[in-house]
Design goal:
The chain has seven helices and 17 strands. By secondary structure, it is of the alpha+beta class. The strands form four sheets. The protein has a six-stranded antiparallel sheet with strand order 2-1-6-7-8-9, covered by helices on one side.
């Protein structure tokens, strides 16, 4: 299953509607195809989606909307989704509508889900799944036109078997055995603990810390045993993953987690979500990760990396503008595709971001001056 587009309307924190498109909107050159995944015909997917903005612009919230949509498509109960706080603030008279477009087994689908609240419980008030076949006359301009599409499934409020917060996707997933493979790393933003309980390839360890001889984990017994050995040193045996933080750098631990998750998604064509990707990493390591996702020999099934960042310099890693979203928060979070602002791909993206040319990408002047005056007064002992 491949996500094509996520659209959400009615979320309290956001300007409406919020839209994130995974397909390559700009022209795809013969050379450019090498870094994209061909879904079908002339439709290509961006294998890396970058969400960039200043502090408190709403980057994390946008990632949570994407995570919520993926969980919805994987028929997880709304009230069990970890990031359901994006729904907080709607009244019992209001509703949030998700429109998720995806590709599966030579068909394009549209899932429209309306979510409402009753007391502290969220429920799905209405839902329809539509589909249309891929034809030889396919045009990208009509990709999201479902006016003549066939109804695959429609929610019936009288159905007894379906819980009121579970999507009708449960029947589709069971029939097609098609799910979105997901590596959710949003919880790792502010914590840094090894989460992969298995042995690691020496090549991966050497990439982050060449002084490590091996790292082996035995989790077959009741008590976990972690065997860590540095070159020309005695083996260290640990019983808790937290203890590794005394011996391995935060960059090494995050690197193992991130790259092992990426390797899993390369096998399945799944999705990796990372918030503030630069935490614990230097720029070159992030660039390597981006290049791996854009390399067909490493990522033949079109796994997708979705990340947020404060560092506009990372944008210069991309040759395209249609896989970068600028996030702003002006009395409501909004996102805008960079290709809607910069029509040319040859303009240096980091300079456009830092200069304020894109709008809302530099700090506000008045708060800056107020803070500067405060620090000047403090320096004078006032």
């Amino acid at each position: 299953m491949k996500l094509l587009k996520v659209k959400a309307t009615g979320l309290p924190l956001f300007d409406n509607p919020l839209q994130i498109d995974f397909s390559a909107e700009q022209r795809v050159s013969e050379y450019g195809r090498e870094k994209l995944y061909n879904i079908f015909s002339n439709l290509y997917q961006n294998n890396v989606i970058s969400i960039v903005g200043i502090n408190a612009s709403g980057k994390t919230s946008l990632l949570k909307v994407l995570l919520f949509s993926i969980n919805l498509l994987n028929n997880k109960a709304v009230n069990s989704i970890s990031c359901k706080e994006i729904l907080e603030g709607i009244t019992e008279e209001q509703e949030v509508v998700f429109e998720n477009y995806f590709y599966s087994q030579n068909k394009i689908y549209s899932l429209k889900t309306t979510i409402k609240r009753q007391e502290d419980h969220y429920y799905i008030a209405d839902e329809t799944l539509l589909s249309k076949k891929i034809t030889s006359t396919f045009r990208k301009s009509s990709l999201y036109d479902f006016t003549t599409a066939a109804v695959v499934e429609k929610r019936d409020t009288n159905e007894q078997y379906l819980l009121d917060d579970v999507s009708i996707m449960v029947a589709f997933n069971k029939k097609t055995k098609d799910y979105i493979q997901l590596a959710d790393m949003l919880e790792d933003t502010n914590t840094n603990i090894l989460r992969i309980s298995r042995d690691f390839p020496q090549e991966l360890l050497a990439f982050f810390d060449s002084s490590v001889d091996y790292l082996k984990i035995n989790d077959e017994r009741k008590n976990i045993e972690i065997h860590l050995k540095f070159k020309n040193k005695e083996e260290i045996i640990l019983n808790r993953f937290k203890e590794l933080n005394k011996y391995l750098s935060s960059g090494t631990i995050k690197g193992i987690n991130t790259f092992v998750y990426a390797m899993k998604m390369f096998k399945s064509g799944g999705y990796v979500l990372i918030d503030e990707i630069e935490n614990h990493f230097n720029q070159e390591i992030v660039s390597v990760l981006i290049r791996f996702f854009q390399d067909k020999t490493i990522n033949p099934k079109g796994a997708v990396l979705i990340f947020s960042t404060h560092y506009s310099e990372l944008l210069d890693e991309f040759e395209r503008n249609d896989n970068i979203y600028i996030v702003r928060n002006n009395n409501g979070i909004s996102s805008q595709k960079l290709s809607d602002i910069l029509k040319r791909n040859d303009i240096k993206k980091s300079e456009a971001f830092q200069s304020g040319y894109l709008g809302g990408t530099t700090i506000d002047y008045k708060p800056y001056i107020s803070l500067k005056k405060l620090l000047m007064r403090k320096a004078k002992g006032e």
